Amino acid sequence: MMSAKILIIDDEKDMRTYLGTLFRKEGFEIESASNGEEGVALAKSFQPHLITLDVMMPKKSGLKAYTELRT
Asked: In 1-71, which residue ranges form alpha helices assigned H by DSSP?
């Protein structure tokens, strides 16, 4: 059975590491991005089942990334 995929988009490395560790321990496949621009591009190729998204980030805010991901 394939595990669910989670994409973590956060500019804080500690938060990406923490969430990644937490989700991996539960058996999820994890990818992460350090800004909204990178996250949107990665979401298109990785096709996650769930995305955790920080609101305030460089290059593209979480709100702009969310809007782009929804379209």
From this structure: 13-25, 36-46, 62-70
